[in-house]
Write a structure and sequence with these properties.
73% helix, mainly alpha, de novo design (two linked rop proteins), 137 residues
Length: 137
Amino acid sequence: MEFVSLPVVSIDGKKQHLQKRLKAYALRIIRLYEALPKTGASHVITRQLLRSGTSPGAQYREACRAKSDADFISKIEGALQELDESDYWLELLVDGGYQTEKKLKPLRTHCHLRQYRQQNQSHEEEEDGSAGTRHEG
């Protein structure tokens, strides 16, 4: 599986970069929703996708205004969960024959933020000898 390299969430200009990417992702989801038929199962799937696919950008913006580290982590985790749910709906669109894998691959790549983060964390833990331990905060 191919993963996208995204900037680390920070207070500097990189925050703006991720906000723009998540907004662009949401707009692509909206355009996909508008392009697909609004009948039967595809309508149910695309409505769910519209909700979960537009949510991460809003949740990230909320995270940038978090009052504590725990609040920040909670909001980021919520955004990651919505991206994972979006990937599920995109997968159903492909498996159900409503859309091709090729057309949805760019959108699905964005959904793999969680796997990218976990892959990086595992790699860092292996390098510092802390594999198997959990890092808080």
